[in-house]
Structure formats: C-alpha cells, structure tokens
C-alpha cells in the first residue's frame, strides 16, 4: 500500500496480518477492503466478565468457565452414542465437560487449548459441565500460548477472564480467532481514518439514544461489557434501515413525479353498481383497503400499492372494484396470474361477478391459440376488451393495449422485477395493484415492499367455517388414513403433501413419489394422482384439471400446490414431515381446503419426539398475520427473506423482531426528507446523497426498475 492511500478503501490484502493468501479467504466472507473488515462484525459474544472459578461450581448451577484442556477423548456409551469429553483446569481446580453426540469435536479441540465453556453443571459420576456454547480462546500451538499468558499453564487464564470475546463469521481456512486477531491489529487505524464521519445527524442519534458511528463500531469489536453491545448494534441497524427506506422513498417519488399517470375521476357508476349488487357487505378491512386504493386512483400519478390479505379474506372483490374504476374512466384493466389455471379461475370468478354489469373478461394465456388468440389480441388492441385476464402472456411482444389503466398482479412473489418493469413500459404507466395471499409481518413488508403503499385485509368475512387443525405424531397415521378414507367415501376430495419429490439419503422426510405408490394401494377404490414440480407444465396442468373436475379424489403433491385453485369439494389436507415447512407455507397449504360449505380439516404430522413450537403455534391459530409474526420470532428473518429475489443479506445488521421501532422512525424520516428534497440537493442532505452514491449505488440502480 502506497503512503497516504486510504486503508478503508484499499484492498484488505495490505492490512497487517493478511497478505494475498488470507485475502482470498476474506473474499469468501465478502471482505475486500479495510472498510469491509470494519463492518465485518461479530455474530455473537462470549462473556468472560462473569467467569466462575471451577472449584466453586455446584450441581444445578448455570456456569461460565475458562480453562486449559488437560485431557480429552471420545467415549462410546451402551446406547451407541459417542460422547466427546474434555477436562478443563483453571487456577482453582478442574472439571469434566461432556458433549453427547458430538464426537467430531475431537478434531477441533486439542490438548492445551484455552477454552471458554458455558452451560449447566450436572451430576454424572461427579460434577460435569455440559456446554451449551464453547469457544477456543487460544490454541496450544498459538505463539505466546494464550490470550495474555505465555507460560502455557493455568496462570494464563486470568487475563482472559474479565473480557468479552467477539466471535466472528469465519470460513474454511480462516478461523474466527484469526479474524479476531486481524481486526485487533488494524482496528485503531481503521477507526482513526473514519474519524468523526457519520452519515446520521447527531441530533437524530440523540433523539434515539444511539451512539455515533465510530463509537458503535469500536464497541462492537472491543466491547467493554456485554451490556454495551445492543445499543451499538441498534446504531448500525438504524443506519441500514434508514438508507433502505430512503431508497424506497426515492423510488416512490421518482414514480410519482417522473412518470405520467392517470387520474380516474369519472362518475363511480360501475363501482357503485357492484357494491349494490353484492349479496354481502364488505368487511371493515375491505372497505378501508378500497378507500385507500380509490384515493390513489384519483391522483394523477401512478398507483403502486400492495394489497395483502389472508386466504379467503376477499382480495378479489376489492381488486374488482379497482378494475371497474379504471373501466368506468374509459381505460382498460388487466389482472395477471402466475399459472394458467389461476388465470382461468379469475376469468370465471370475475365473469360471474361483473357479468351483470356488462363487463366480460377476455382470457389471454399460452394455451389460447389460433383464431381465439387473434380475436383476443384484436380486442385488446382496439380497446373493446375492457378487462383482460392472463399470465405472463400479457407482457409478451405483440400484446398492445389501447389504453392501459390498471394492472393487478396476483401473487406478487411469483413475479420478478423484470415483469414489473415490462408492465411499467406498456405505454402510459398504468396504476399497479399487487396482491399477495402470503401474510408477512408489517416490518418485513416495509423492508421488502417499501416502494409500495400497503393495504391490509386482516379479517375474514363473517360465517366462514374455521378449518379444524390437528398436529399428530407418527403413531396416529393409521387413524388419520382411516379418517381420510371416510371423507373420500363420503364424496369429498383430499390432498396429501410431502416435502420431497424423491427419497434422499441425507433427509429422512417421506418422499412424494414413494408414498404415492403406497397411497394408491391403500386407497385402491379411488383415483390417486401425483403432482410435483419436476413434472412438465402440461403434466401439472393435467393433474390439477383432473382434481378440479372431480375425476381425481386424492392428490399426492409437494408444495407446488401452495398457490393453487379453489376446489370447494376438497375437505382434508394431510401434511407429512411438517417440521420441514415454514409456518407461512403450512398456512398456505391449509388454505387449499375450507373453500366450500362442508367442514374441512388439516392434519399435520411431525417426525420428532415432540411437536416443535412452530407446529404448536400453527395448531393454535388460523390467523395468517399472527402466524407470520410467530414465524419471524421463531425462525428469524434470514429464512423468511429467502434467497431468490432479496436474499438474507438485504439486512445485515437490523433484526426485525427487535428493531421495528427503528424501522418506523427510519421510514418517517426518509419520507419527510424526500418529500421536502427529492433530489437530496440541499446542503443538509449532501452527506446522505454522498452515502447513497458511495455505498448504495448498485442497490439504487435496482430500485430504478421497481
């Protein structure tokens, strides 16, 4: 590194203790520069400030000890369980630690290592510590012997006590101790170059009781106490959430001010007629959502709104009102579904709903060919098709709308950014209403769909029969199959869902293909069909059409039916190895039944000794939004983000189960700033503009297309 070159922006290779080979390892952790290392934060901490002397440990106590490994080994038991054991010694005495079922630790913990171990003290031929967590603080082979000691004996443990040890994300060939050593060697220089630079105004930090950036980073790498960690984590979380919301706010502002929209201000003849003709009253949540959508459509800038509602909450009626509002203003409306079957279902439902108003849905999917396709394209092109229902076929070349007004996108998570961009490019930007039947927590919606306004239908129509849900163990399977047979014999239909297509050597979950053959034999008097994602599109369509028509009584499937069609005659959903599904998936699968007048049932089987907390929550409630909050709390946000479109890396520092107050504050501040200064050109906002240009340029480019 040349004199005067920035170590924050310079390659990590030139930092102390790194070099070319170790830089390759750091690259696997997405650490390429000194700044990346500064933001490569510990994922947990070992608190050695309250270390217990080994001699004072008592049975029943929860203890934290630091000791030298004086002996170790793997011991088999009569039940063929292999137990790794290690004896730790400090200045006061020694104790045996045991890790049942973890013999591989024999390869990672060596005699002479300095170990921090935390867990309960139990009686097993004397006192025994069974560590919940452990960390190798120093290797016997390390230069100097220990952290703070050089004699390799018990006296080296004392300096380790009284410290909080950060544990860093690591990778093959680069241990968390090596990462910690590199951070220690370079932290002071990195922080010195950072200085007092802070993109977040000091007044905001004071309002939120958060430390400045440099102080937060120093505390997270060198915590003086475990109680100082959380405020510093929340400081970085706020910065991350604020800039994400700033990107969202700028995307919304760009759409509103740079893209010409339509103000739908014609007399509400069709919408009033539909509301009058409905055989039921809208729920309070439906009325509120319609009010928000109607207000958006009155404005001369494009609507960009997410309509979120549980299965059966009545999103389609609200979407129909929005489409009629576009139609009564002389514009065309379209609804796009992820599958042909769903598109056909929408055509039937909307045809029945809007037929009396002389609004006929025109269908356009890949299966509409020949003269029917040419007729549909001509009617779309000359404006006679006021309402169009279709799939991705709606955004293919050759489909030209005469006067696009509103596009409804059903099941948003099935469509990517590219499809949304193409819809925006279809002439004068139509209003967009995105529908999703997958309830997600509000905090998650603000992060993923922050560029969309949010409407939520969080109540079901009155009189809807609740699906009876039961969580059962393997011993109840025969009884459940008997019940399934009774339902089929009574003329009903059923689903049996498995998490895998084929059996796996590494996973013990039952496979749909294997169980399909057994279920065919078990229910020989009925037609049983198999449906999974590896089938061709034509085969999947055929299987679902057969089930919809009633020709198939039992459908054996994977989660390909998670987003499916209405089969009112289906009354039983049986899910095997349910612990392998997320709560949102289970709730979506349960929503495949309960569509008709008959009582419906959902039976889920767990393959473990006891049902998990998630499955018990699923059994207890049918509220999709409550389950989504439980899923966030139990599983964490990484699993919920997934990796296809957003990735868990969307949030590196913020935790939505902890930082929802920071998210709301960040959203409010970001919207206020962009409302007052969309281009961030005022002197007070130059630091924010610079931060977006330097650290968020790539993400801001993605937001240009929605």
What does this 3D model show about the protein?
The chain starts with 18 loop residues before the first helix and ends with a helix. It is α/β, with parallel strands linked by helices and 706 residues long. It is globular, with a radius of gyration of 30 Å. The relative contact order is 0.09. The strands form 4 sheets. Strands 11-12-10-13-14-9-15 form a 7-stranded parallel beta sheet, sandwiched between helices. Strands 16-21-20-17-19-18 form a 6-stranded parallel beta sheet, with helices on both faces. Strands 2-3-4-6-5 form a 5-stranded mixed beta barrel. It contains 24 helices and 21 strands. The chain has 4 domains: 46-167, Beta Barrel (OB fold (Dihydrolipoamide Acetyltransferase, E2P)), CATH 2.40.50; 237-259 and 662-703, no CATH class; 269-457, P-loop containing nucleotide triphosphate hydrolases (Rossmann fold), CATH 3.40.50.300; 468-621, P-loop containing nucleotide triphosphate hydrolases (Rossmann fold).
């Amino acid at each position: 590194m040349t004199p005067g070159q920035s170590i924050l922006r310079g390659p990590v290779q030139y930092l102390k203790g790194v070099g070319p080979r170790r830089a390759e390892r750091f690259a696997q952790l997405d650490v390429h520069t000194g700044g990346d290392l500064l933001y490569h934060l510990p994922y947990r901490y070992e608190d050695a400030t309250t270390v217990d002397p080994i001699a004072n440990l008592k049975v029943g106590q929860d203890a934290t000890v630091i000791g030298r490994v004086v002996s170790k080994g793997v011991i088999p038991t009569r039940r063929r369980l292999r137990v790794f054991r290690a004896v730790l010694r400090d200045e006061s005495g020694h104790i045996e630690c045991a890790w049942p079922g973890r013999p591989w630790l024999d390869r990672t913990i060596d005699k002479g290592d300095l170990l921090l171990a935390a867990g309960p003290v139990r009686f097993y031929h004397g006192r025994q510590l069974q560590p919940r967590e452990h960390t190798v603080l120093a290797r016997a082979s390390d230069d100097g012997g220990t952290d703070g000691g050089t004699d390799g004996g018990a006296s080296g443990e004392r300096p380790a006590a009284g410290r909080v040890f950060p544990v860093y994300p690591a990778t093959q060939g680069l241990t968390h101790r090596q990462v910690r050593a590199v951070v220690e060697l370079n932290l002071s220089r990195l922080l010195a170059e950072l200085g007092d630079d802070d993109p977040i105004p000091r007044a905001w930090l004071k309002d939120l009781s958060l430390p400045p950036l440099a102080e937060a980073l120093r505390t997270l790498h060198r915590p003086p106490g475990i109680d100082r960690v959380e405020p510093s984590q929340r400081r970085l979380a706020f910065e991350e959430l604020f800039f994400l919301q700033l990107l969202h706010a700028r995307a919304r502002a760009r759409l509103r001010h740079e893209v010409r929209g339509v103000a739908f201000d014609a007399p509400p003849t069709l919408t009033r007629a539909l509301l009058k003709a409905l055989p039921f009253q809208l729920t309070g949540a439906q009325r509120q959502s319609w009010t928000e959508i109607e207000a958006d459509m009155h404005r001369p800038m494009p609507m960009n709104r997410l309509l979120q509602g549980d299965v059966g909450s009545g999103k389609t009626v609200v979407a129909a009102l929005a489409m009629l509002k576009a139609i009564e203003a002389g514009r065309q409306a379209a609804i796009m579904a992820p599958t042909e079957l769903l598109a056909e279902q929408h055509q039937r439902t909307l045809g029945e709903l809007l037929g009396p108003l002389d609004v006929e849905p025109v269908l356009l999917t890949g299966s509409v060919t020949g003269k029917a396709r040419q007729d549909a394209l001509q009617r779309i092109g000359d404006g006679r098709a006021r309402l169009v229902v279709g799939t991705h076929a709606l955004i293919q070349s050759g489909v030209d709308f005469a006067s696009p007004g509103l596009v409804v996108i059903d099941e948003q998570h099935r469509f990517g950014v590219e499809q949304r961009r193409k819809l925006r490019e279809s002439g004068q930007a139509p209003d967009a209403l995105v529908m999703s039947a997958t309830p997600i927590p509000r905090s998650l919606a603000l992060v993923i769909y922050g560029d969309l306004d949010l409407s939520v239908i969080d109540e079901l129509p009155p009189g809807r029969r609740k699906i009876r849900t039961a969580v059962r163990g393997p011993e109840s399977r025969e009884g459940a199959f008997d019940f399934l047979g009774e339902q089929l014999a009574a003329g009903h239909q059923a689903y049996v869902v498995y998490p895998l297509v084929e059996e796996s050597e590494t996973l013990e979950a039952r496979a749909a293909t294997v169980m399909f053959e057994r279920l065919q034999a078990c229910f020989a008097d009925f037609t049983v069909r198999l449906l999974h994602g590896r089938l061709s599109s034509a085969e999947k369509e055929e299987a679902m059409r057969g089930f919809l028509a009633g020709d198939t009584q039992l459908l054996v499937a994977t989660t390909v039916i998670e987003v499916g069609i209405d089969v009112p005659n289906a009354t039983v959903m049986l899910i095997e190895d349910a612990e392998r599904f997320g709560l949102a998936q289970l709730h979506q699968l349960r929503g495949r039944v309960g569509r008709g007048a008959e009582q419906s049932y959902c039976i889920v089987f767990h393959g473990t000794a006891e049902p998990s907390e998630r499955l018990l929550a699923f059994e207890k409630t049918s509220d999709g939004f409550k389950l989504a909050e439980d899923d966030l709390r139990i599983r964490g946000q990484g699993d919920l983000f997934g990796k296809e479109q957003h990735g868990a890396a969307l949030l590196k520092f913020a935790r939505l189960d902890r930082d929802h107050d920071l998210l709301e504050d960040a959203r409010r501040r970001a919207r206020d700033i962009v409302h007052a200064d969309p281009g961030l050109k005022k002197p007070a906002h130059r630091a924010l503009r610079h931060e977006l240009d330097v650290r968020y340029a790539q993400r801001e480019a993605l937001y240009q297309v929605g």
